[in-house]
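Journal club side-thread
Mid-discussion, someone asked how the predicted structure for our own chain would compare to the paper's figures. Pasting it here so we can look after the session.
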Amino acid sequence: METFRYLHLDVFAASLGGGNHLGVVTDARGWSDAQMQRFARWTGLVETTFLLPPLDPSASYRVRMFTPHKEIPFAGHPSVGSAHAVLACGLVQPRDGLLWQECGAGVLPLRVRGEGDARELLLKSPPAEVMQTGADAHPLLAPALAGTVVGRLPPALVDGGRRWWVVECANETSLRAWQPDHAAIGALGKATGSMGICAFARSNDGAFELAVRALAAGAGIDEDPASGAANGLLAAYLLHAEPQGPLARGYTVSQGREIGYDASLAVQIDADGIWVGGRTHTIVDGHLRWTRA
């Protein structure tokens, strides 16, 4: 048995315990692909990440991301949580307010805003493309949306690192009360190579401008409590559909309350692109005993 430092994080939490879980092995040098997959399966978390020295000299660090079943090239909350881990452990320092993360999607920048418990990390979303729009864009879309009322923007299939159907609901009340048909959403996801439906509604709450639900049955997850990648694609669609709209420069998202979480995500849109992130809390900082053999 060997000993490795391990962090268990609460990513995008508006209140303690309200965010998305992430496990991080802070030094995975010498771990094989099979060992990483085996440990990720053992944690049972939606994602577990493994930090490594970068291969690209322009990167601050390298991260590999695993679900319990497979390695994935990129996801939002594992990226933000891993960046928090490298700063919390003193592994790297920002350069001109940026960290550069090497992952399966390339070398991606993260903005560092603030310090300590108030620090926010915002990941630049990969370029996105609106592939299809309209309520009739796919025959499985209508069954997947049963039980909700679509808002003024048409549903759209958006691709960028991951692929989601982005759907506006008529209002926040109907979005939060929706009882989705996860089997129908899963069928739509599998047929279109997408995660599922990122549903959103505009809000007058004051603390946030959008409420979001990430219904990821296409990836075998009924609902994600806090999804950076889905929110990045949602922002890309809003910028495409409403380039002069009130959300075109950024906004705050509430996510996860329907399943007992309380996440808050910040979206910043400027000439450099779309940035999605928030705060991360270290819940467990300890050591794991594991073998790499």
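Post-session note: The first strand starts at residue 2 and ends at 11.
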